[in-house]
Amino acid sequence: MSIEVRHLTHCYSEGSAMRTVALDDVSLTIGDGEFIGIIGHTGSGKSTLVQHLNGLLKPSSGQILVNGQDLNGEHVNRRALRQQIGLVFQYPEYQLFEETVARDIAFGPKNQGLSQEEIDERVRYAMSCVHLDYEKYSERSPFELSGGQMRRVAIAGVLAMKPSVLILDEPTAGLDPRGRDRILSMLEELHARESTTIVMVSHSMDDMARLATRLIVMAEGKILATGTPREIFAQEEMMLSAGLGVPEAARLCRALRAAGYDLPGDLYRMEELKEHLLRLWSARKSGGKEAQPC
């Protein structure tokens, strides 16, 4: 499923002295199967943008086209289109309310009018996606779980509706390192296994380096830059000007280059930095020529 945003502008408090332009003439395309990372400082328009992608907000001007259909068009089945685009808010566990994990996850599919057999299958599918054992957790209260487990239950509730596009706003916010890694691993597997289109908002450049196939950098309601993680993270000055940083590996690579190490300037993952450093060390140890960067 493709999403095209055309000249999107959104203003809060329109017509008042408090009018604020949150999005200013934003245009972008999200292709089928992409993993898009949206980054920007607080107030850059990230959350406002993703809330437009499934129709929670209506634009002041511009269009959002979902498979060529205007999400806010007059004769469009808006509800059907929105069901194909799942949105997970920041801290979604605050929206849990059912007595058991299974009933909470089943809430969305029930509203879709599915049979009980299909609902049960969807619950089992969603729990497997988020690495929660059905037999162990389905009849437990979600409020007895850890914070990370509650977060996964909330995400499973969206996945149970089998959206074609999954949008997540800061999905690892507030989690400890173990909970964060489980969420990231789950998203990594989901994207690889089912080619689900994923759009993720995050302040963590290391999370984006791990998962995203393309980044969108936002500042003051506009798109400042877009490109692969390698292209974006190589522009450290641009990132700093937007109030952002770069992944730890990119910072370390820059420091090592400044110290005289012969490293490519666009490394941004710790694994590839380690590989290049081991190659340099092996070459120096053997007294041979240094291997050429790949």
Structure description:
This protein has 294 residues and is an alpha/beta fold. The chain folds into 3 domains: 1-84 and 194-241, Rossmann fold (3-Layer(aba) Sandwich), CATH 3.40.50; 85-162, no CATH class; 247-286, no CATH class. 41% of the residues lie in helices and 21% in strands. The chain has 12 helices and 10 strands. It has helices at 46-53, 78-83, 101-111, 116-129, 134-137, 147-159, 177-194, 205-211, 229-233, 236-241, 248-258, 270-286; strands spanning 3-12, 20-30, 35-40, 61-66, 69-70, 85-88, 165-169, 197-201, 214-219, 222-227. It has a 6-stranded mixed beta sheet, sandwiched between helices. Strands 2-1-4-5 form a 4-stranded antiparallel beta sheet, with helices on one face. α3 (101-111) packs parallel to α6 (147-159), α4 packs across α6 and α6 runs parallel beside α7 (177-194).
Q: How is the secondary structure organized here?
A:
Blueprint: E1 3-12, E2 20-30, E3 35-40, H1 46-53, E4 61-66, E5 69-70, H2 78-83, E6 85-88, H3 101-111, H4 116-129, H5 134-137, H6 147-159, E7 165-169, H7 177-194, E8 197-201, H8 205-211, E9 214-219, E10 222-227, H9 229-233, H10 236-241, H11 248-258, H12 270-286
